[in-house]
Amino acid sequence: MSSLYLPNRQSSFDLSKEERAQGNVDIELGLQGDISSSAQPGLDGFFEQVRDIQKVLDTLTKLLKDLQKSNEESKVVTKAAAMKEIKKRMEKDVNEVTKVARLGKSKLLQLNKDNLTNREKAGFGKGSAVDRTRISTTNALTTKFRERISEFQTLREAIQTEYREVVERRIFTGTNP
């Protein structure tokens, strides 16, 4: 029985050097001109911006988890000094989330501006493949960003509500014999 794997043969989908020459481009790939170029037309720097925003989202996720962990810790702590330390750490995390959120928002706004600027270039107008790629990626990032901010706001409200309940219990316990 013969083997289907032929290590010395080139796949029918691989392009030879002659096929990669400037005049021989694959229209189905959407490539025009020299396909050996690593930069994708219309997406210059776009994916680098996307990676930066993804790093911001990762940072927000980490801060959110840290805040949730601190909140759970604060529920079981009984010593005042330990509680103050946890509250200080939580305040620091909240301030950091605010800073990171502002940074993320500004990066998303810049990405949207760059998308509009890119539409003005020849061949990359509204509805083009590059425009659809840029818009769908930007929309996905914006959705993730909004979800993180919403999760943070929900957690912050829960923390404030729990804190109020603890203070009310202390006051009620202290005033009623």
Shape: elongated
Low-confidence segments: 18-27, 33-38
- Helix content percent band: 55-70%
Computed Rg: 27 Å
Q: Give the H and E element order.
A: HHH
Strand percentage lies at: under 5%
Derived structural class: mainly alpha
Mean pLDDT: 80
Number of separate strands: 0
Structure notes:
With 177 residues, the chain is mainly alpha-helical. The longest helix has 47 residues, at 129-175. Residues 18-27 and 33-38 have low confidence and may be disordered. The radius of gyration is 27 Å and the shape is elongated. Helix content is 67%, strand content 0%. α1 (46-76) packs antiparallel against α2.
Keyword list:
177 residues; 3 helices; mainly alpha; elongated
Question: Summed up, what is this model?
Answer:
The chain is an all-alpha fold. 67% of the residues lie in helices and 0% in strands.
Task: Write the SSE topology.
Elements: H1 46-76, H2 80-119, H3 129-175
